[in-house]
Automatic annotation (TrEMBL):
GO cellular component: cytosol
Protein name in UniProt: ACB domain-containing protein
Family per record: Belongs to the ACBP family.
Record bears the keyword Secreted: no
Region (Disordered): 653-672
Keyword Cytoplasm: no
Database matches in InterPro entries: ACBP4-6_C, Acyl-CoA-binding_protein, Acyl-CoA-binding_sf, FERM/acyl-CoA-bd_prot_sf, Kelch-typ_b-propeller
Length: 672
């Protein structure tokens, strides 16, 4: 479904079609001349044709109609302008002519708000199927139950650069062969490409692999092959699966675990080589975990941490395993503390390469919204206190970490879909809501995927698929504005509560590595020394507290110097930005002037064409009159010649009569 954006209205191309419909535009200038000037109508016509048909390839009209000539010239003048640019300019000109058009548009039907009914653990007996993609009709819905008037946003440029608004989901213009709608699939981003593998559609497991180019928003299907056997891997059987995990590793994709029709006894690790486009099954060592689906798999350094899930007998699990990717060896972990209850379809993330966070998930009867933390150094579970706007219980949601922020999307609680996109600051354990959607939409679905990419140094979230009463194949993107907010502190006292909650400190403080932000100039990494001895003046290694403080002061001076340089650079950048804005203003004024000149020239050309048409009509009339004159002159000459001939005959007959003795009669004599 196409997303409505708060303070941004419809996304393209829906915004363009809405504008064209409002203008009463169906491709003819005459339909819109009542609302706009002739010049604007001609330009709108040309842009409409360019956006819907493409560049003008038709020959110049042979008729002498000034209107047809002007229409053709306007369209021809756009050259090879891109379709998306024509759409944007069409809407921009309409907004210049009629700024309130969007609020007065009455032909946008909103989708009613419907709670999404879900049954988290209801599974249909899977049947293998390799399906082809099938496009689905897009519907427009609104956020918070209403459409909002917006200003034009350039959201139709190519790739992730099209995302120009923060903290709102938008639907980019997707092209190519769209994958079949699905949920419980795997998704991973590698170098501006998002890969989708497997999933569940109508209770049937899939094994197809698709890739979305995030620069052109184009889908394509990957024709994969099976790699031959080697010392490290064996040929992979591309068994359809769902509930698996897809992890990028070096130049490969790792597919771990998942539900299949004929499950194996233990977890299988399959790898897809992005260079050779071939699948293989990795050979592992040690005691592999029992096969399962709905587990969480988290990459920590060079290891995969697997937790929970549901096995082939529908038994819920809460065991913990680690796979070393360098040695391909499994290790079962018996952690300290109280682990999370058995669950599947939860979300997991790692913070500071040390703390594994588990949120939500479901059992056969309930869904959870609890948060658990595993210290990967001490292998001890804890359940810290959550703060802020704690999310509702959910399962089947998707999550992705961006710095110290953990974004959670979708999921459900057996009654309705979760409509909020939430974020957890993993340093402070404070939840907040990023945005919300309403209605039966893909973003309030179970089993959707969430991945992160970047554009010009900014992170962008990309979601795909899900199930909310129907299977989805939609793509939505969101650019988060959340930044690291943990402030710099010199710790001379016990660790703060927000950090000790994550660390689960008891008798001594442990190693902490935290990120914090100085204003908005940049992030500085602070390493806090641990294991403070009972002697308040000496550390465990014998260094005095004074020496530590002196070292920290020295580092502080260096950081302040670096900060001053950054501020100076920031001032320079602001000056350059001001200059760029000034140039932009001047260029805009020049553009307006050129537009005015163009409009005047078009009007003058229109008048000249009318004059030319009238002159041609007069010329045709003059040619007709000339022909009639020549005909009359020929008739006159013929008449005069006939009269002359008659007189000559009369004169010749009188002479010969005298000679023959026949004088003319008295009547003729009288006439003479």
């Amino acid at each position: 479904m196409s997303m409505a954006r708060a303070s941004s209205g419809l996304a393209y191309p829906e915004r363009f079609y809405a504008a064209a419909s409002y203008a009463g535009f169906d491709g003819s200038v005459e339909e819109v001349t009542s609302k706009f000037s002739s010049d604007s109508a001609l330009l709108l016509y040309a842009l409409y044709q360019q956006a819907t048909v493409g560049p003008c390839n038709i020959p110049k009209p042979s008729s002498w109609s000034p209107v047809e000539q002007s229409k053709w010239k306007s369209w021809q003048g756009l050259g090879n302008m891109a379709t998306t640019e024509a759409m944007r300019l069409f809407v921009k000109i309409l907004e210049e002519e009629d700024p309130g058009w969007y609020s007065r548009a009455s032909n946008f039907a909103t989708e009613p708000i419907v709670d999404v009914q879900m049954n988290h653990n209801s599974k249909t007996e899977p049947v293998m199927e390799n399906g082809n993609s099938s496009p689905e009709t897009k519907n427009i819905f609104t956020e918070n139950g209403s459409l909002m008037e917006t200003q034009d946003k350039d959201v139709v440029s190519e790739g992730l650069g099209s995302v120009v608004v923060y903290d709102q989901w938008i639907a980019p213009p997707i092209s190519g062969q769209r994958p079949k709608a699905r949920y419980e699939h795997g998704a991973a981003v590698v170098q501006d490409k998002m890969y989708i593998y497997g999933g569940n559609h109508n209770g049937r497991y899939l094994n197809d692999l698709h890739v979305l180019d995030l620069r052109s928003w184009t889908w394509s299907k990957v024709e994969a092959k099976v790699e031959s056997e080697s010392l490290e891997s064996s040929p992979a059987t591309l068994t359809p699966c769902a509930g698996h995990s897809l992890i990028p590793w070096e130049n490969k994709l790792l597919s771990i675990a998942g539900h299949t029709k004929d499950p194996s006894e233990t977890i299988q690790v399959k790898t897809f080589d992005l260079q050779t486009s071939s699948w293989s099954t990795l050979k592992t060592y040690g005691k592999a975990p029992v096969s399962r689906g709905g587990q969480s798999v988290t990459l920590v350094g060079t290891s995969l941490v697997i937790f929970g899930g549901q096995d082939a007998k529908r038994t819920l699990l809460n065991d913990l395993h680690i796979l070393d990717l360098e040695t391909m060896t499994w290790d079962e972990i018996d952690a300290l503390g109280v682990p999370p209850s058995p669950r599947s379809d939860h979300a997991a993330a790692v913070h500071a390469e040390r703390y594994l966070l588990i949120f939500g998930g479901g059992s056969h009867a309930n869904c959870f919204n609890d948060l658990h933390v595993l210290d990967l150094q001490t292998m001890e579970w804890s359940r810290p206190t959550q703060q802020g706007e704690i999310p509702t219980a959910r399962a089947g949601h998707a999550g992705v970490p961006v710095g110290e922020n953990w974004f959670i999307v979708g999921g459900g609680d057996n009654k309705s879909g979760a409509s909020e996109t939430v974020v957890l600051n993993m340093s402070t354990l404070v939840w907040s809501v990023v945005t919300s959607v309403q209605g039966r939409v893909p973003l309030a679905s179970e089993g959707l995927s969430l991945a992160v990419s970047s554009y010009n140094g900014e992170d962008v979230l990309v979601s795909f698929g899900g199930y909310n009463g129907r299977y989805n194949s939609e793509v939505h993107v969101l650019k988060p504005s959340h930044k690291s907010t943990l402030q710099s502190k010199i710790i001379e006292t016990p660790v703060p509560d927000s950090v000790s909650a994550v660390h689960n400190a008891t008798n001594a403080t442990r190693d902490v590595e935290s990120e914090f932000e100085v204003g908005q100039e940049g992030k500085i990494r602070e390493i806090v020394m641990d294991n403070i001895d009972s002697d308040p003046r000496k550390s465990k290694g014998g260094e005095t507290t004074e020496h530590l403080i002196a070292t920290l002061k020295s580092e502080k001076e260096e950081l302040e110097s670096s900060l001053s340089k950054e501020k100076l650079q920031s001032i320079q950048l602001k000056e350059e930005l001001a200059e760029a804005e000034t140039r932009n203003t001047e260029l805009y004024k020049e553009l307006q002037s050129v537009r005015g000149q163009l409009a005047a020239e078009q009007s003058r050309c229109f008048k000249l064409e009318v004059d030319v048409a009238e002159l041609r009509q007069k010329l045709q009339t003059m040619e007709t009159l000339q022909k009639e004159l020549e005909l009359l002159q020929r008739q006159k000459a013929a008449s005069e010649q006939a009269a002359l001939n008659a007189k000559q005959r009369q004169s010749s007959g009188g002479v010969w009569g005298w000679l023959a003795g026949n004088p003319p009669t008295s009547e003729k004599a009288d006439d003479a």
